[in-house]
Amino acid sequence: MIFQIALIAFSLFGILHVSRQYRSQKVSVYWFLIWFVFWLIVIAVALFPEATDIIADYVGVEKGADLIAYIAIVVLSYSMYRVLVRLERMRQEMTDLTRKIAIEKEKNNET
Amino acid sequence: MARYNSNMIVAIIPAYNEQGRVRVAIKDAARFVDRVVVVDDHSTDNTLSEAKDAGAIVLHHVINRGQGAALQTGTDYALNILDAEIIIHFDADGQMDAEEIPMLIEPILNDESDIVLGSRFLNKKANIPLFRWLILKGGIIFTRLVSGIKVTDTHNGFRVLSRKAASEIKITLDRMAHASEILDLIKERELRYVEKAVTIKYSEETLLKGQSSIGAIAIVKDVIKSKFL
Q1: Nearest chain B residue to A88, by CA
Q2: Of B1, B178, B197, B2, which Cα lies nearest the Cα of B107?
Q3: What is the pTM of this model?
Q4: Chain B residues within an 8 Å CB radius of A111
Q5: Which one of B53, B59, B76, B79 makes the best mutation probe of the A interface by having the most chain A beta carbons within 10 Å?
Q6: Domain spans of chain A, in order of start
Q7: Nearest CA in chain A to B62
Q8: C-alpha span between B196 and B156 (Å, rounded)
Q9: B69-119 tens-digit pLDDT
Q10: Least enclosed by CB within 10 Å: which of A2, A48, A96, B165?
Q11: Whole-angstrom Cα distance, residue B145 to residue B103?
């Protein structure tokens, strides 16, 4: 019961936050809608957890809660991979920049 | 200064906190090459001024990027600004013997090789501490598995590259794993390579300062990461 209330409160906070972001034009209408629908789904799941069992059963997982946990792990793993790739690219860009500065400075006798 | 068939020969010395040693390395190398390029990898000591005083061309990294990155910076400069024909990778810590440079250059001058790799294991007199020996042998097996290239010493920093090899080998692994990357690229680009016996002098000071054996783990990690990302 406490967990459900916390989840709903968190989702409402999420909706509030994304609405503010939308109003101050920090996110596009497209992303506003995606996040809005996402938080609505979270609220729906918090209110009627049994509903997820139907979907879980359909894809061959025993419980809805398990299904959500599995999806979360997959999504998080993928996000982690994306972050690592981006980090790697940034590392390379930083090295390229450092190299460029080093060579330019020598060319201009500034070392 | 020596000239071989009027080729521009450039030694690249990556240096990170090599105060007190870098001067000797520069003077040593300068006897056998046309230009010495020191890449100061954002040292916190007097490496930069010492290298300049010793007469080297000094490139300065505004942040520390690692030995691999420093070598590539030196290579870019040597190829594009100095128009180098032959590039030598040389260490700043005095572990290498510059007198071996002419012998290492030979196969490139004779157009027998694109890259010459120094190997401390071809030299029977090599005086390598046992633990270091074990780590290095492990590295050889690892490289054989990953790169599929057969060399006797994978992490020896003493190399000579022809202009062709230096242009084809672009180091992207900034830290110590660049040695494995170079071997990878030799195989991938089908460059002609040969190993030559070199002497690596181990002293307490260089052992403390140089790659720690724990560093081997970081190398393996970087190599594996580079295969996935």
Answers
A1: B229
A2: B197
A3: 0.81
A4: 48, 52, 58-60
A5: B59
A6: 1-48, 64-111
A7: A98
A8: 11
A9: 999 999 999 999 999 999 999 999 888 999 999 999 999 999 999 999 999
A10: A2
A11: 30
